[in-house]
Amino acid sequence: MEDSPINRLPEDSLHQIFSSLSLRQIMTCRSVCKLFNQILTSPSFMHLISTRSHLNLLALRPPHHHHNHSRCESLCTSLHVYDPDQNQWLRVNLDFLPFRSPHPVASSLGLVYLWADSADSPDSNKSLIVCNPLTRQYRVLPQLGSAWSRHGSVLVDSRNRVMVLTELAALYFSFSQKTQQWLKFSSNLPSKPRSPIVVSNSVFALCDVGSPWRSKWKLFSCAVNNMLNLNLNVMNNNWECLERHEWGDIFDIMKRPRLICGNGNKILMIGGLKSSYSLNQSCLTSKMEILAVDFDPTTVVAEPLPPVVTAADGRPSESDEEEEGVEKPVKKSREIVLGRNVHTSCLAVTEPEANDEFTGDKDAYMAGVLARYRKTLMDRTKHHLGYPYNLDFDYGALAQLQHFSINNLGDPFIESNYGVHSRQFEVGVLDWFARLWEIEKNEYWGYITNCGTEGNLHGILVGREVFPDGILYASRESHYSIFKAARMYRMECVKVDTLVSGEIDCGDFKVKLLANKDKPAIINVNIGTTVKGAVDDLDLVIQTLEESGFSHDRFYIHCDGALFGLMMPFVKRAPKVTFKKPIGSVSVSGHKFVGCPMPCGVQITRMEHINVLSSNVEYLASRDATIMGSRNGHAPIFLWYTLNRKGYKGFQKEVQKCLRNAHYLKDRLRGAGISAMLNELSSTVVFERPRDEEFVRRWQLACEGKIAHVVVMPNVTIEKLDVFLDELVEKRSTWYQEEHDQPPCVAADVGKENCACALHK
């Protein structure tokens, strides 16, 4: 090489030759020989190419080393950078840096940013260095403290502005400033920022806003452009939480999400699927639109209403006295609008493709389906008024238990061979309800059911086993599960008429008792009827039995307290449901007023009655007197958690809130000229049925005949009721525009005093 003619060329000619090459080719030529390296690293040549466009380099972060570095460690090291334009790796020598262990953290416009240990510092304090690996120039940025590099993320934008995000503050440095100093953000992040990125003139980062037991990620943004206050050396801006309807449930689906990059109004995020969505933790990428988009979730689905089906209606009228001006319900077939055929919109189960394990397409598809489904749930929850479910709950602390198959097989008071159970929680919940209904621990037996209907099925079954030839008496407005039990157990069932309020008519009850005086009576007493929320008078029912010649050993009373069974004890002057009275069992739903997220219930009966149902099960090493056998072991934990958090005082406050809001709704309906009724001990407001079935479906109203109802639960706020009322009044004005088209008379359903039809108002 020494005899090569190129050695005889003048230096400026060599500079012109090499400067015609690309920067990548120049870096390659450095390693050809010592002469080329000297020429291409000379100050004159560096100055010549300094105006070239920068390399688009991506620095490779080396692996972490957990051992201590020796003081004699070589200061010379190399760095591997990736050139995406040429799709190749380049090796850059960093021997010009007088630092140990350089650790790249960012790169922009051909500059590389590194943390490195000072060679002269005995404490090994790290410095933040920016260098140009081509020109071999470097610069040490101002120090911010001994521990600043241990928990900071370094960001660099397209203008080489450097930002270090820490847990407590965001620090900013600009090369354009004559005074080389850091400027502080007015930071208001809820937690340490995760995977921050710079997009245009904004910084984006993920923050955990969840609980210590469950992470919940949110996207935060902060603008950094034109916000410098040079006099105060402070950035006058705040972080803003970004939320968009169209993103759906992406932050709940992804595990350990990370922001990758952004461009314009789009951000690329990557993360694994949570175990509840995927067993193999496949990777999922998501592109999110940052800009707001007008979105109306109620317009997503516009399906036609289902066809009208004619069904027999056995509504009572035989014992009602004729009243002038009151339309009487007639026993005839009436039209019932059934729900949609789910087969038209069901989600088919498909077999995975052979390469799904590697592509993750199936997991991504399922994650998208679940995200859209959650968005639907959020909207339907927002417009939920007609069914008695308390949707105001937060069980984030219990998410850690969803990875276990908890099954309370058999008797809750006797452990079985299956060890993954929650009997200790179940019995604790049962004891709480036993105290509420005033029965001693050694006198009751019960269990947590899979739903409210199972409690009724069990209560009626116990009554039938106690009195095999007994007749079941239930008011016509009892829950349909009571009549289902009669069919299942082949029991003789007598339907008792009701008052206008929905309460059992004890006059008719007495007539029917006397007609069957030779057989024992099994009675279902409603602690809140399904449609009108009426509470049967337990004391009057017992008095009627006694007056009809039924001693306590010839009747069995089951109290169906699905919703109001937990509200009644906290209502002043309300009749008590207690085992100090001659009742046999009480059941209540756990997913209604309590607010358990899965259907469940509590059933309690007297110990003396349960032996007729109990049987020993050898392979369980336990006894079983339940109906279903396997029972959800998570439900008792959720109930136990809620009872502990709220207690008697908490439930009392919620009951008072529900009753207060129910009266507000009733008063506003009556004020708008709409027929409405509210029973004294109830939070169920009954009113005239809306004419538009689409409106009924939108607000999920429960309807029967000419009436509908709203069940005011703890999650139903005044604001929500106002939205509903305003929409109802607006719609109603279009339903009855014509003079001859008037609202229906519902006096037979709610009473003349509550009817606002033309005849009664």
Tell me the fraction of residues in β-strands, as a range: 15-25%
Which structural class do the helices and strands define? alpha+beta
Radius of gyration: 37 Å
Major sheet summary line: 7 strands, mixed
Give the SSE layout:
Layout (H helix, E strand, L loop, with lengths): L10 H9 L3 H8 L3 H7 L2 H7 L8 E2 L18 E6 L4 E6 L5 E10 L2 E8 L7 E7 L4 E4 L12 E4 L5 E4 L4 E4 L9 E3 L8 E6 L2 E7 L8 E7 L4 E2 L4 E2 L4 E3 L7 H4 E10 L2 E8 L9 E7 L18 E5 L20 E5 L18 H4 L1 H22 L40 H14 L7 E6 L2 H15 L4 E5 L4 H9 L4 E4 L9 H10 L5 E6 L11 H10 L7 E6 L24 E5 L11 E6 H4 L4 E3 L4 E3 L9 H38 L4 E3 L5 E5 L4 H6 L3 E3 L2 E5 L6 H18 L11 H4 L11
Parallel strand pairs: 11-16, 24-25, 24-26, 26-27, 27-28
Antiparallel strand pairs: 1-2, 2-3, 4-5, 5-6, 6-7, 8-9, 9-10, 10-11, 12-13, 13-14, 14-17, 15-16, 18-19, 19-20, 21-22, 23-29, 28-29, 30-31, 32-33, 33-35, 34-35
Helix pairs in contact: 2-3, 8-14, 9-10, 11-12, 14-16
Brief summary:
The chain has 761 residues and is α+β, with helices and mostly antiparallel strands. Helix content is 25%, strand content 24%.
